[in-house]
């Protein structure tokens, strides 16, 4: 159906989008790559020449590097575990017959639409504050000493906040996937006497396999770069300095652009490793 | 559901689901409630839930003291503008990929998506530097363009999946009946594409409204949207829970309402069609 004329017209129509995205990707990335091989301190002398792989060596061997990797892994891993496990349970529950299903769905999904700075500040002040927070009242009610959440249990706190934000996303996607499951299969298994747990393990879970993978991959990409939640709560102290936050501090706070750029390149490579797997699934779906 | 469900089981489901639903929603509910309290009531020990003197004072104070309207206006312009720009760039691109696919269409789509995976912090300094050099730092124009660019892949992708659902036969039929390309686009395609474009717009406004990396790092006083305004409450003075709640409620209310309309599109838009 496509003629030669319509082909060139099509190319013309795609050009703005392609050029914009190409520029958006290549220009800053090349600049980061360029800076990463320079000693570049905008506030203390500017461009101080080429230093080869020095920035990379210093970034990886700095005392902040490994703690930031661990903080990142704990947050990503913790949030993934919570959102996937509870997401599956919630999705199964929401798929059951009940009254007011639509409203419950709305209640569950709501946190996803709250802007990150709001959810972080509301949790920080109104729930986790050691004096006036609701948790403190709850702890006192049960006769326990209130916890200083964001300093004593800083990682747990961040994981709770971020998991609350992302649980709706996981639930919604897993629910969509569950609803596409043929209920006759489950009924047949039930009639054959399969107990609920094996029905879940042998039918529901395998069916959800791809949806779970997609949830894990997409969330990993977004979780690797969470920023606002740390920016307005701990500012990276108490062991919550993630890789993203560390790079941000190097680049903008201490204005050591060369060093930060080396970290930036590392973050880009890390995200790309995850992205490759995601792209493979998306690409397969495109053919179908 | 063909299965016979006992009423008893339905009751259990309902109670359990409502309980969990309310628990998850509680932080938002608590914020909304607190926004109607006085500052003293907001930190009352033990906490009060419903029985207090409801007041609109906080809303008034927040608007008077902090120039709230300017932040709101910035959010509206940045989220709306970036969405509009994105749609203008994306509609032709998605249209051509959906209706005149070539051997490379799939690769181009995947490549576009992959730009979305680029971690923002990896390009923070270059963008910052470009913004300074071009005088765009703390400007709504600059932020609008950046947000348009980060969401462009999602817009193109969503539009593409919607456009692809429009059957090509209808276009051929229109052409047989003598419709010109212009008529074809105006009278056949556009009406069929409007629902898809509308949901794409909706999801993109939500994403742009809540974006909190570039909005925090590229703005100061002038162009700061609500995300940055709320962040300014992270180092408060005195009693501020009720005011924080009022400001937060105002910042999230429009998006909560929009969001509830866009549940279905959310799955399509954010999984890039990998889950249907």
What would you say this structure looks like, in words?
The complex is a heterodimer of chains A (288) and B (276). With 288 residues, chain A is mainly alpha-helical. Chain A folds into 2 domains: 36-64 and 241-288, no CATH class; 71-227, MetI-like fold, CATH 1.10.3720. In chain A, 75% of the residues lie in helices and 3% in strands. Chain A has a two-stranded antiparallel ribbon with strand order 1-2. In chain A, helix 9 runs antiparallel to helix 10. The model of chain A has no long low-confidence stretch (mean pLDDT 90). Chain B is mainly alpha-helical and 276 residues long. Chain B has a single domain (62-270), classed as MetI-like (MetI-like fold, Orthogonal Bundle), CATH 1.10.3720. Helix content of chain B is 72%, strand content 0%. Chain B contains 13 helices and no strands. Chain B has helices at 7-34, 39-42, 57-66, 68-99, 105-116, 124-133, 140-164, 168-176, 181-210, 214-217, 226-231, 241-261, 263-270. Chain B is globular and about 75 Å long. The relative contact order of chain B is 0.14. The model of chain B has no long low-confidence stretch (mean pLDDT 87).
Sum up the structure in keywords.
heterodimer, A: 288 residues, mainly alpha, MetI-like fold, two-stranded antiparallel sheet, 13 helices, 2 strands, B: 276 residues, 72% helix, globular
